[in-house]
């Protein structure tokens, strides 16, 4: 008995692992604070620059949050990561692009004989249709993605749908390249949300430009996030989605059509990604077949950061990641081209130090 007890492997206590994580987190935090302090002493950046960077981060973060919510919704229902979600955003972006191009090609004659495009003659209609079509085709893509790539693998081991998602991502990228071409396409905005126009806000003796396109994107992102939260918490569909996320078998016994709810979840997540794609084109001015890859990966980082499966966590994670990505290079004194390194470093640190995210991962007995 003594020999068997001696050969038994010794497990590290859970408390020791937590202490190691806390020490590692403290060391990283101290190093970051020292670096930021040293850069701040040498930096010549004023308050207006920091405000401009923060607003820019909020705008991009709102788009990350919309995409991250799509990851979170699908993970909460199926416990899988839909790595083709960024390509759904790309398809929505092209939907908005072609609407603006079509309306820009339609001439309209004003009362004084001046000719302008329909895009600027009826900008509200053009913007509304761009979002409706962009969100519609993205939602349709999400619907068929679930039907073709994921539903046949519903009972397979969890690694199998993940491989299918990666394959679907590559397929949609190549399909986008064949359909729309490899070149970058420039978004032509209506004048009322022109990227070069905005409000001049005086800050610390200088003026900060808040562009119409940026503020429009930020307000619309916040509106869609609030609308989704209310849908999930206050509607019959939302209750059904939460029931299916908790226990599919019990939900089916209670009369809920599980397959229908899963399809509707993919439609909603696709529509949100499509809206983010149109906003991305409006604010940044460019789109191409590869436009959804990096935002998709960063939105996944945001979802993990906030707590995968947690909708408020995805919102907070997206906004936080956008701000850190925007002001991080200036605060750390590094090149702005390294902002992607900051985003993925955050992903690695979160997975090591707090895998459950800021607000915690939504766990069920089935998932455990």
Structure commentary:
- With 368 residues, this protein is mainly alpha-helical.
- The protein has a domain at 65-295.
- Helices cover 70% and strands 6% of the residues.
- The protein has helices at 2-7, 14-42, 47-78, 85-104, 118-121, 123-150, 159-180, 212-234, 236-246, 248-253, 258-284, 293-306, 311-332, 339-353, and strands spanning 107-109, 115-117, 185-186, 198-203, 206-211, 286-287.
- Helix 6 crosses helix 11.
- The protein is globular, with a radius of gyration of 23 Å.
- The chain starts with a helix and ends in a 15-residue tail after the last helix.
N- and C-termini, Cα separation: 34 Å
- Summed up, the helix count is 14
Q: Report low-confidence residues grouped into runs of 5 or more.
A: 363-368
Helix content: over 70%
Which overall shape is indicated by the principal axes computed on the Cα atoms?
A: globular
SSE ordering: HHHHEEHHHEEEHHHHEHHH
State the strand order across the main sheet. Answer: 1-2
Please describe the biggest sheet, giving its number of strands, its sense, and whether it closes into a barrel. 2 strands, antiparallel
> What share of residues are in beta strands?
5-15%
Give the mean pLDDT.
85
Q: Which structural class should the secondary elements be placed in?
A: mainly alpha
Tell me the Rg in angstroms: 23 Å
Tell me the number of strands: 6
